[in-house]
Prior knowledge:
With 136 residues, this protein is α+β, with helices and mostly antiparallel strands.
Amino acid sequence: MTNFTPYLLFDGNCSEAMSFYKTCFGGDLSLLKVADSPARDQMPVEAQEKTINARLKSKTIDISASDWLRPDRTLKKGNTVCLYLSGGTYAELKDYFDRLSVGASVVDPLTMQFFGTYGALTDKYGVRWMFQGDKD
């Protein structure tokens, strides 16, 4: 089953922001630093203490987030919030990805990563989408 949630991108203060949101909304917060992830060896030293994945989940809220980890792209207001489709099979995500790709700018093609399926695009209306599926 595919889930639809917001995804927030922060400029190095993801852990602080998500901890604050936890005090506001409650729920369970999981945080993963780059240094503690399988991506640590592919990331520069200055990124090691950044958050690669955070999730705040309760009965009423589900927010995913990370720090901005793309030095080849510029962080700016307007590109720090994404619509996030997560879970589901590769085939389900590929179907959504392909449909939304019509007239879109594909930022990251839908591929298998160390954590599962991942892809991102900006649709023809300027809305950013991220896709992430579980490892098969």
